[in-house]
User: Which sequence fits this backbone?
């Protein structure tokens, strides 16, 4: 059936919530008149209403009553209080999507009415520029249509795939924390270029675009990274010299260990 006749509500209009609203409208999956948003911050709501023409309110109950799909874009520490505030307006036909980091499906389902439909989603910071990687975990009462609707929503801000909830910690390690590992790489590559004489602005632009281009090659050619690396690496050339230096400093094990340790910490925080 798709989302065309659905109303989508967002509770919380911070960076992630507002990015989702912009992605949804930019992709034309629903009209602005079908989007509802609520928050405690009036300025954020006014800005979104003026910019995008959506429906806004300070009352979460209104958002829930008017929406078929409710996205909880709130901090983990307040999610129980937020749910308690609109619980009486929930009906079994409504779908709740939570993007509260680290809060498992079972804990949110305990707060909702019995039989409520819930999907847990973890996007990452790149949603703010439409390039998120989002993991989607359906709860027990959801339908295939619910899952497809969630995928359609989160694909408006990047890529989205369904994973089992027990893999959320691994996702946190590679995609939730992952952007933070790449920023120093871009900075370091730019520093190297500055050392060799490029000005800082051009060095950063070239380094960032190089990382972006490499990622698109992996995603759009469906080639293994090793195959793409070999395409660039000529015998006795510049790339193999640089790659040898990276291997000398243990680049592979360093990145693997970063993902593994982040995943471990995610499991610790979830206990």
Assistant:
């Amino acid at each position: 059936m798709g989302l065309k006749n659905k109303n989508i509500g967002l509770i919380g209009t911070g960076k992630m919530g507002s990015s989702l609203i912009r992605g949804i409208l930019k992709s034309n999956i629903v009209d602005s008149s079908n989007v509802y948003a609520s928050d405690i911050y009036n300025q954020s709501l006014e800005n979104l209403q003026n910019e995008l023409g959506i429906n806004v309110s300070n009352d979460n109950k209104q958002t829930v009553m008017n929406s078929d799909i409710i996205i909880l874009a709130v901090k983990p520490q307040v999610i129980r209080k937020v749910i308690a505030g609109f619980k009486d307006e929930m009906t079994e036909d409504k779908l709740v999507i939570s993007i509260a980091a680290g809060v498992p499906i079972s804990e949110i389902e305990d707060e909702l009415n019995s039989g409520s439909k819930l999907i847990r989603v973890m996007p990452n910071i790149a949603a703010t520029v439409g390039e998120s990687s989002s993991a989607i975990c359906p709860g027990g009462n959801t339908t295939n249509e619910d899952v497809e609707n969630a995928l359609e929503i989160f694909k408006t801000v990047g890529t989205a795939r369904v994973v089992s909830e027990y893999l959320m910690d691994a996702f946190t390690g590679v995609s939730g924390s992952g952007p933070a590992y790449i920023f120093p790489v871009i900075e370091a590559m730019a520093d190297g270029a500055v050392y060799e004489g490029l000005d800082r602005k051009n060095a950063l632009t070239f380094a960032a675009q190089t990382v972006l281009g490499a990622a698109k090659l992996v995603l759009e050619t469906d080639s293994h990274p090793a195959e793409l690396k070999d395409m660039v690496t000529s015998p006795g050339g510049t790339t193999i010299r640089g790659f040898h230096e990276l291997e000398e400093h243990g680049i592979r094990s360093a990145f693997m260990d970063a993902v593994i340790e982040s995943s471990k910490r995610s499991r610790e925080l979830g206990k």
The longest strand covers residues 132-138. The chain has two domains: 8-171, 176-269.
